Amino acid sequence: MLYKFLDEGLKSRNGENKDWELGVWRKEEDINICNKGFHASKTPIQALGYVSGVILAEVEVQGKSIIESDKECWSEMRIVKAYNWTKEDSVEFSIYVAELVIDIFEKKYPNDKRPREAIESAKNWLKNPTEENRQAAASASCSGSAADYSASAASAYAAAASAASATYASASASATSAYASATYASSAYAYASSAYASATYAAAAYAADYSTSAASAALKGKLNQWFVEKIKTLTVWEK
Question: In the chain, where are the structural domains located?
Answer without folding.
Answer: 2-84, 87-220
